[in-house]
Amino acid sequence: MKEFIVREPVSLLATDVSGDIVNFTRVLQYLEMGEREALEDLRINLGNPYSDGVLVPHVHVELGYYCPLFVGQWVEIRTVCQRIGHSSLTWRHEIFREEECCVSGFTTSVWLERQGGKPTRVPAAWRQYLGCRSNGRA
User: Fold this and answer.
1) What is the 8-class DSSP label of residue 25?
2) Can you tell me the distance from the alpha carbon of 96 to that of 77, in angstroms, rounded to the nearest whole number?
3) What's phi and psi for 107, nearest 5 deg?
4) pTM: predicted TM-score of the whole model, two decimal places
5) Model pLDDT, residue 15
6) Exposure string (b/e) for 54-85, b if CB count within 10 Å is 16 or more?
7) Residue 117 and residue 131: Cα distance in Å, rounded?
8) What is the mean pLDDT of residues 122-135?
9) Where are the alpha helices (DSSP H) in the chain?
10) Which residues contact 30 (CB under 8 A, 6 or more apart)?
């Protein structure tokens, strides 16, 4: 399985009202950074998400928080394709501070036809490139 890695400093804008600890919603943005890295690596046109006539919304997010992240630290976001179904793709994410895993979880997206919003098959090129487990179901 191909792993995509992004390193990012924790900024003051990422914190909760205390100004010290990363707000839990910022973690979702970190996960999107990992997915964006994968899409860029696949040469998916991020500036025009409708170019293939599909929508790819997130439909499920599951996260575990194990230790806080603080301003001034660097995080490493590790993203791997966990599973490809007929019309869905599940990413496994881990966020590390040095060698300690602080957050881990999964996001699932579903391919939908732009016209009508019906599920459609994940492109074969994605399946081949990402090299993750496939079960043929959504």
Assistant:
1) H
2) 7
3) -130, 145
4) 0.84
5) 78
6) bebeeeeeeeeeeeebeeeeebbbbbbbbbbb
7) 26
8) 76
9) 24-41, 124-130
10) 6, 8, 75, 77, 93, 95, 103
Identify the sign of the CA torsion 14, 16, 22, 28. negative
CA distance 36 to 82: 16
Looking at the DSSP bridge assignments, the partners of residue 83 are 90, 133
Cβ atoms 77, 28 nearer than 8 A: no
Closest Cα to residue 113, out of 59, 52, 36? Answer: 52
Q: Which range is least confidently modeled, 17-31, 44-58, 75-89, 117-131?
A: 44-58
Nearest to 130 by CA among 7, 3, 32, 37: 3
Nearest to residue 130, comparing CAs of 90, 101, 103? 90
- Where do we find the tokens 């439909």? 59
Residue 136 gets which letter from DSSP? S
Query: In sequence order, which residues have a C-beta less than 8 Å from that of residue 49 and are 6 or more positions away?
Result: 55, 56
